[in-house]
Design a protein that fits this description.
This protein is α/β, with parallel strands linked by helices. The protein has twelve helices and twelve strands. InterPro entries: PBP_domain, Phosphate_ABC_transporter.
């Protein structure tokens, strides 16, 4: 056969081979969801160890989570997690009655992320809930005790700023917020508001992970200023703000955004680039009710446009014992489709 006659055959063979290869890529993309996105991370690897479920694939419902331990299991920690303990954990108990969870307060001091991790290190808890990442000192202490700690993120949260509902102010930048809590800005007029003394409220830094997170990420580890008034609980602090025209307080966004007695302020990294922690349009206090409240701006939290966001962690003790199994199971439950739906209903932002 002449070379001229062979040419169409060669072209046809090439097209068939190319079609098979492209078909294989298409099937891989549909089956695994990988597609061609992996090319974007070449030279910029992303660690996924702490973002992955504790064991393998993610289940759809609580009932489908495998290897659930039985018995009474103590857990404790962050007060930010209270809505999850209220709205999610009872449903876990209904579906898995043998996986018995008991929230345990510290014998002395206030409950919080730090005290929960301390109790976990002291073998008082099977696992703990935290609104901040683990510290290097906590990793090291666990190592000295013969085990390791692992943080598994299960939800997104943010820090919202509460002020009096009648305060006229479009928002604050992060530097302005920092300077208010360092007592460098003491009058609302300095940030575009009325001529009125600012009264910053806070819980003490040893009272929880939210305060530790705020001190480290907003204040840059600087100590609170002399004008800051310390209040024991968020409930008490929000009541103070509702009565004090010049008051300001920060807390987990679900604890602030839906409140009718106060107003949550938009925040920005730069002036006039404010992002609200609530969905717009804003519902003023005069129109706010049990059935009509401001809702969390989940889109801005997920995108990172809102400037103060964080992850909520299950802290697992990796000791090869039932404690590790309990912590990993609890994280896996929250990472199911059912768990993420319930976390969203509790006021937080789903992580998957």
């Amino acid at each position: 056969m002449s070379q001229k006659n062979e040419t169409p055959t060669l072209i046809l063979s090439f097209l068939i081979t190319a079609g098979l290869l492209l078909g294989g890529f298409w099937w891989l993309n549909r089956s695994t969801g990988l597609g061609f996105g992996w090319l974007k991370n070449v030279g910029n690897p992303v660690s996924t160890a702490s973002n992955s479920p504790a064991s393998g694939a993610v289940a759809a419902t609580f009932a489908e989570v495998p290897k659930v331990p039985t018995g009474l299991l103590n857990y404790g920690g962050s007060t930010t997690w209270a809505p999850i303990r209220r709205d999610v954990d009872p449903i876990i108990q209904t579906v898995l009655p043998e996986f018995r969870l008991r929230y345990t307060n510290p014998v002395t001091g206030a409950p919080g992320s730090g005290s929960g991790i301390r109790m976990l290190l002291d073998n008082q808890l099977a696992f703990s809930q935290s609104s901040r990442p683990l510290k290097a000192t906590e990793y090291e202490e666990a190592k000295q005790r013969g085990f390791t700690l692992k943080e598994i993120p299960v939800a997104l949260d943010g820090i919202a700023i509460a002020v009096h509902p009648n305060l006229t102010l479009s928002g604050l930048t992060l530097p302005q917020l920092r300077d208010i809590y360092l007592s460098k800005i003491t009058n609302w007029q300095q940030v575009g508001g009325p001529d009125l003394k600012i009264t910053p409220y806070s819980r003490r830094i040893e009272d929880g992970g939210t305060i530790e997170f705020f001190a480290e990420n907003v204040l840059g580890k600087a100590p609170f200023g002399s004008t800051v008034e310390f209040i024991p609980t968020t409930t008490q602090a929000l009541r103070k703000v509702a009565k004090n025209f010049g008051g300001i307080y920060y807390a987990s966004a679900p604890e602030v955004v839906g409140q009718c007695e106060i107003k949550s302020l938009p925040l920005g990294r730069k002036p006039n680039e404010y992002i609200p922690p609530y969905q717009e349009p804003y519902i003023p206090s005069s129109e706010c009710s049990v059935n009509r409240r401001n809702q969390l701006n989940a889109t801005a939290f997920q995108s990172g446009d809102y400037p103060i966001t964080r992850r909520l962690f299950v802290i697992v003790k990796q000791n090869g014992d039932i404690d590790q199994q309990a912590g990993e199971t609890y994280a896996n439950l929250l990472l199911t489709n059912q768990g993420q739906d319930l976390i969203e209903k509790a006021g937080f932002v789903r992580i998957r």
